[in-house]
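Weekly structure sync - notes
Attendees: PM, LS, DV (DV joined late)
Agenda: review two folding runs queued last week.

Item 1: First target. Sequence and structure tokens pasted below for the record.
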Amino acid sequence: MRTRGTFCVATALALSAAVGCTTGDTEETGRPSSPTASTPRTASPSATTPAPVNPVSIPAMIQRDHKGSGLELGRVLTRTSAYTSYEVTYESDGLTISGLMNIPSGQGPFPALVLAHGYIDPEIYTTGRGLTREQDLLARNGYVVLHTDYRNHARSDKDPDNDVGLRLGYTEDVIGAAMALRSSGRPEIDTDRLGLLGRSMGGGVVYNTLVVAPGLFDAAVAYAPVSGRPEENIDQFQRPEGDPLVAEIESEHGTPETNPRFWREISPLTYVDRVTEPLLIHHGTTDTTCPIRWSHQTVTAFEKAGKDVELRTYRGEGHTFYSQWARSMDTTMAFFDKHLR
């Protein structure tokens, strides 16, 4: 089992290498003159100063001092013989984020899972929507489940720049949820055993989290995930709908053709060498919302980097996982049991 508390240290140690590999565009504009006996050898500032890090990028997230704390239980939503479900709030990146937490009945402490839901219009979203089946089943099988609403959803604080910033704030909120669980001091939670599960858009949040915060979780699962290349998600979901946000994003950050560096640095696939956790991906072969080829390209990138990744495919299954969900969850629970118990 990975020693808890190594996240910050491991991130710091890996930072220079991870960010350095994204600054290859830096040009050396001068060469120091040959030193003499009276002239000490000095490095050229232009040769040693890296290019500025775009604040909307994976390297910027790697550098950031992530914060998550203040987990508070609110009113009871549901009480069953197997678990009690609460409204919760926690602090993430200076914002108050709402969510739902299921705490199993019986003697803890229990391993904990953070759940990252897929896209639901924030205007209609309510606390806990998107992964209700998983919340129930995982809690019944002895896991504390914290389902984050994300910023701009339900009772969470607002972040007006999140959409133009490629929704990287959702990754901050998942990292914050894990850190809030760790620091909660609640006796029901085993802070040494922490897993992550995301669906659809939440699968992309899983990818980001694994590269930004290696060591924070012990294992991760992605269901029918989006592409690890954000430009493909824009072309699949937003551009065909004429979403005006596309023009805002491209005005702010450029297109993949005019600013390839930005799009390279916003993709978690560029940084899969940082991942330390095993990853399990579930994907249906007839998923037309998130094509299965996206998961194949993610697996290829992980395997090329020598990472522990497994793709389970489900013939004839679409994006919703209605017909084979139970079988996929048996696999998911066996995976979490292996790495968290």
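Item 2: Second target, run right after the first with the same settings.
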Amino acid sequence: MDGSPLRRILRLAVPALPVLAAEPLYLLVDTAVVGHLGGTELGALGVGAIVLAQLSTQLTFLSYGTTARAARLHGAGHRDQAVTEGVQATWLAIAAGFLLMGLGQLFAAPVARVLAGDGALADAATTWLRVALCGVPMILITLAGNGWLRGVQDTRRPLYYVLTGNGVSAVLCPLLVHTAGFGLQGSAYANIIGQTVGAALFLGALRKVPLRPRPDVMRAQLVLGRDLVLRSLAFQACFVSATTVAARTSVGAVGAHQVVLQLWTFLALVLDSLAIAAQSLVGAALGRGDDREARELGTKLTRYGLVFGIALGVVFACLVAVIPRAFTGDAAVLAEIPHAWWFFVALQPVAGVVFALDGVLLGAGDARFLRTATLASALLGFLPLIWLSLAMGWGLAGVWTGLTLFMLIRLATVLARMRSGRWAVVGAPQ
């Protein structure tokens, strides 16, 4: 094994790992804190969190698209232009964040009722959402900041900024939920405070550069963003459907799904640390015209992702009797968790390869292919099984069978694209 590429990957992936893991790790803390309030509160957090994710993660192109464009410019020796990508992405984040916050306030209650039905679960989810939605602009500013800094191969400042914000949230969450007596709403208050701290730090990183809006750059970002938004919609349609089916199965099922889904999200972003390194290194290699290096990096990252995924699967298989009880003592929730747990464990090696190759293709700006492949995987794999599961009463086992098929189809498509080599197009971003 060539040590030099591995060192370059680790130099970017290791600082990116805690950045990627910080938000889902905070959500795991949030889930554990709220879980001890009761099954209804835990289920409400699950419903509310999945809705909030739709409003924020649809614009992940602010991070991933900005990384791809900035990395190519950085690789071509145009660092000033790479930073300009970050400024324009931040303007887009501010505008979109306030728009989504307003729309979310209008539709929080009806959406919660669609997902959870009428009753206490939907009411509690609505209450949490109305507070948590105020943090959407800060979430998007953080996405944009992470994007351009990764593109110029600076993963250390995002590490400090994100850990500071999430550390504030993690400390405040149990204090506001239990000590101060705010209950479920306390977790949302803690979230907003931490998000504001993180966003302020990312804005501070741009204080010495020209802040003038550049419509031409923003238009180019939106063109790339269009395909990434459609890709995100496919993901979120799957996860919203899964939460809906779980919520309509039982309070225990939706609580168990929330616990395992947050662990899945956490490990997905841990594995995605390799994808961050792939975006930056592959984008830079293609920006300076070296498609051979980009292909070699893609091959190595695929192998590293497989090894990393196997290791995580083994660890969580061994901890099946320990981890669920850290999140809840509710007997109904604990009884449902095994129906999802072993799917979650078995999928880790698949996820390791898929997420690494996602990073390679995103770094190459191959968003159109990723959009089409993800939509096909959702329409042919996940969604049919999810809704069949509801009709047939298969519960969480049906939900996670759908996720398994979704991931296997994605694995086949990205491996085929990688082997074709058609993604390795050199030159600066258009």
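Discussion on item 2: The two ends are 35 Å apart (CA to CA).
Action: LS to circulate a short write-up before next sync.
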